[in-house]
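Exercise 3.2. Students should predict the tertiary structure of the chain below and write it as structure tokens, then compare their answer with the key that follows.

Predict this chain's 3D structure.
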Amino acid sequence: MTTLRRLLQTAALAAALAGPAAAAAVSEPQINWFSMVTDAGVPVGYASVEFRDLPDGRERIEYQETTLREQNERATRISQRTVVREDTRGNIVSLVSEIRVGTSRVKVEARLVEGGIEVSRQTPAGLTVQRVATGPEVRFDGGEGLFAGWDPEKTPKLEFASFNLDAMAVERVVVAADPARDAHGKLGVLRTAYQDGELRGVSRMTIGRDGQVVSITQPMFGTSITVLPADKATAMQPRPPYRVMTSLMSKSPFRISASAAEGHIRYRFGFKDRLAFAMPQTGEQRVTVTPTGVQVDICEACGPGLTSDPKALKAATRPTAWMQSDDPRIKAIVADVVGMKVSDARKMEILTRTARPYLGEIDFSGHFSALEILKRRRGDCTEAAVLLATLGRAAGIPTKVASGYVYSRERYHGVSNVFMPHSWVLAYVDGKWVSYDAALPAVTSTHIAVTVGDGDPRAIGAAGQLASLLTWESMAEVKRRPAA
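Answer key:
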């Protein structure tokens, strides 16, 4: 239920794969082409990077495109065009990104101002502007400029702050080199990105002797997407639309009964390539570190919940670019609920029913804010979670968006007995954190949370990447002992 657009943060990939032209000025426009393929070799799209000299500097134009299609649905083209402007000294002046999902268009512009970056986001629902504090150490090239002079033997790990336009935030990036180069002198590296201390991105890159990135691979719910150089004809060759949902499903080792899903299930996971990360602990999910990975227990009251300190709860009620809980249109929807003399838990139940009619048409393309959802009246589980979390915040209830897996016994997109990507809401009600789901009839013990965020595409997309690092070791129903 989470789309390829959310899972694949390819804007940064295209920048890193800029090629030789990125290191020197060019008098004539030069275009580098790239293919995007799955680990099975299935092409899913293409990307290009064009360089143009300007009288007052230079601009780099990054473009990526893919077409998605699910059963009995029309194909949807998703594209992103990003223009990076530099001055004559090579300093970044602005970044402008235009994302098109079908006929929908979103424009994000970041400009350097005193003390930080001003980011504006224009959508059919309106304009939002926010300021991101930065310092002179923040990079805007994803670390590309560091690779040419990097000696991994002396410095096996690079760490730096990087601005991510999709996330509209500064990330801490770590690039760690493999022990040795291959026979062709290419270096393998692991790139990880953290936002507010949480792992938000994982990718593997190959870097040539000249410091240029040769390829980038990102994991994604059991598969992976690789971006690698190609000629124009290869990159733009006709390809059928990619059926993303069936590719993202994971077959369950057991068929889970309704009673088991309503009870207590214990999962054991390992980590691929020892890339361990901290899974969240919700009100229903308890995570215990084991010698080989983690044990995840899920039941109605299994978990300790997220932190409930006043600072965290206050942050979970603030409006964001994705959850405009202070907008009059949102406030009007929750006005009656706010005035009810009932518990916050009861209010969330009512808001869950209130959110569902706004997602009348299923649409797996793109990622949209609460106000965009009100205008579009369609979406998938992520839009349902974003809207419900927004309504909760508008009603004064702290909320977060959880993303990970959910189980389906029924045949869905031609496949049954699978775990699939999913998002839902965590709300702090009556002194504890409780899960609510506006996309499914109920929250069960098959809701496995991998990330928790504020409805932004970076946190939701990270769930797909991190889920690919998990290896399923075992799954068992934990039954209560009969009373003596």
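Discussion points: The longest helix spans residues 381-394. Residues 1-16, 19-26 have pLDDT under 50 and may be disordered.
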